[in-house]
Every structure is written in structure tokens, then in C-alpha cells.
Design brief:
Blueprint (H helix, E strand, L loop, with lengths): L2 H8 L9 H15 L8 H15 L4 H10 L4 H10 L12 H10 L6 E4 L6 H14 L7 E6 L2 H9 L1 E3 L8 H7 E3 L7 E4 L1 H4 L2 E5 L13 E5 L9 H11 L3 E8 L13 E5 L2 E4 L7
Parallel strand pairs: 1-2, 1-7, 2-6, 7-8
Antiparallel strand pairs: 3-5, 4-5, 8-10, 9-10
Length: 286
């Protein structure tokens, strides 16, 4: 092998100029705006996802794109930037052990039940919660609510349609498929849509957990915030959990992801089961 051919093999060709300083700026911007802490291993992912924005805007490099973002406090491009860098891995009844716990919890709750799903993604999780409420509460489910929020507007738009492929619902039981979904026909063959009685329980809205004010203000019986905290550093985790606690009704539950531990960050929560935490005391009390 010649020196020239060896050098050619090792050369990495990129479409856009992307420097260490560009990556550092992106890490700072997404952390400041969305609380996401990007590690060095995310560099290629960042390049790949944001390259689409550069092509759309016909920009030659990352530097002018980041200059444009920093010159504006808000705007559509900021939201597209966030949408590009958020991860939306989800499925129906993911981490299945949580849903029987939720069912037992809501059966014991007096009055109308409200659950906040703080990372709704494309809708599988909030609809799984709504199905659980309908199964657990029976006629009482008519007064139940699922507040489904996410920082990513693109996935929220997809979630609000309530339409999924048969592949996405293949792990659901035939009974749940018959009861809670309508099967598509004709041009919609191979798809299903959640039934209106399920969809009516779920209200979608954009919420950035780093915003100074949230649209969610009412007391809730449970909060699902799963596989979100892993993208935050410890100070951001503490800040978010400190704000969750006052929103929970006494004895309310927080459902976290499989690698997250709320009790280590906020003493108001005590472990109740596998990645399930109960609000053990009123926030601000000893």
C-alpha cells in the first residue's frame, strides 16, 4: 500500500466545516436552552442531525448557523434546533412494570385523576397511560386526564394524530388492540388509530422543563418523567425535581427511567418500587 492510498483511506470527508469550537458552542446552547448535557461521544450524532438544517438553510458551515441562533433569543429555528437534538425512543407500555403500579395507585385516589407525562414523544407513552386509566378506573375514567408534554414540537404533532403502524402496536394484546384502536383500511391499511374515547383523555402541549414557568400548574396524582433525567446534569436534575414535588398531590408518584434515581437527588421522594418514587412529605417541610 502506498503512502498516498493509505492517506486517502484515512481521510474523513465532511460536507460542512465542523470544528471543536462549533461542537462546544452547540453543547453550550442546547444545555442552556433544554438542559441536555451532550458528551463528546455525541459529536457525530450532532453533526448528522444539524447538517439537515444547514442544507435546508443553504449554509456552508456550522459557524454562520450558530451565529444566527445566538443573534436571536427565540424563533422557529431555535425550536428546530432543539427538535434535531432531542432523542425520542419510545414504545407502548415500555418499562411495563410501571403500569400495574399506576393502576393500583389510581384506584385508591379520590376524585378525578390527573397524570402528567412529561416526555410524551410520539405518543406511545401517554396513550399507554390513558389505556391503563381506562382499565383501572372503569366509569371513573371519564373524568381522568393525561397531560402529555414534550419539548419537541415535531413529535407532539405526530402524537396528536394517534396513528401508528401495526409494527408499533405488535406487542399489544389482541384484546387491547380491539378495545382501544381502530384498524385502518384502504389507503390506511397497515395502520391503527387510537379510539376517540382514548384520545379524549389526552391533551398534548409543548413544555420545556427548563422554562421558568410551566403550563402544568394543577396538582397531579402521578408524573411520568422517564429517561429524561439521564440527559441532564445533576444541578438540572435537582432543579426539575424540586419543581415536580409541589405539583404532586400528597402521596403522589413519580415514575423515572430504569437508570434514574430520584431519591438521590431530592429527599422529598422515597423509593416505592423499581424506579417508582412516592412524594414522602410536603415540599419545604422537615
Amino acid at each position: 500500500m502506498t503512502i498516498e492510498s493509505h492517506a486517502s483511506r484515512l481521510a474523513v470527508t465532511t460536507e460542512f466545516h465542523f470544528t471543536d469550537h462549533d461542537f462546544s458552542r452547540i453543547r453550550t446552547l442546547i444545555h442552556r436552552r433544554a438542559g441536555i448535557a451532550l458528551g463528546e461521544q455525541k459529536r457525530q450524532m450532532v453533526y448528522s442531525r444539524l447538517s439537515r438544517r444547514l442544507r435546508e438553510l443553504q449554509l456552508p458551515a456550522f459557524a454562520p448557523y450558530l451565529d444566527q441562533l445566538e443573534a436571536r433569543h427565540d424563533g422557529d429555528e431555535w425550536q428546530l434546533f432543539i427538535n434535531a437534538l432531542t432523542t425520542n425512543l419510545t414504545s407502548f407500555f415500555r418499562e411495563a412494570h410501571h403500569f400495574p403500579t399506576l393502576a393500583d395507585h389510581v384506584r385508591k385516589r379520590p376524585g378525578p385523576v390527573t397524570v402528567w407525562c412529561a416526555a410524551a414523544s410520539t405518543g406511545e407513552e401517554p396513550y399507554s397511560i390513558a389505556i391503563t386509566l381506562m382499565e383501572a378506573l372503569g366509569e371513573r375514567a371519564g373524568s381522568a386526564r393525561v397531560i402529555a408534554s414534550d419539548i419537541d414540537t415535531a413529535v407532539l404533532a405526530k402524537a396528536a394524530t394517534g396513528v401508528f403502524t401495526t409494527e408499533q402496536v405488535r406487542r399489544l394484546s389482541p384484546e387491547r388492540l380491539r378495545r382501544f384502536f381502530n384498524k385502518g383500511t384502504g389507503t390506511n391499511a397497515g395502520k391503527v388509530r387510537v379510539r376517540p374515547e382514548v384520545a379524549t383523555l389526552v391533551k398534548f402541549s409543548r413544555v420545556n422543563l427548563l422554562d421558568s414557568a410551566w403550563s402544568v400548574k394543577e396538582p397531579v396524582d402521578a408524573i411520568f418523567c422517564r429517561n429524561v433525567m439521564i440527559y441532564f446534569d445533576k444541578p438540572t436534575q435537582k432543579k426539575v425535581l424540586d419543581r415536580f414535588a409541589p405539583l404532586l398531590k400528597p402521596g403522589g408518584l413519580l415514575f423515572a427511567g430504569h437508570s434514574e434515581n430520584a431519591s438521590l437527588v431530592n429527599p422529598a421522594f422515597r423509593p416505592l418500587g423499581q424506579t417508582v418514587y412516592e412524594l414522602s412529605r410536603t415540599p419545604g417541610t422537615a
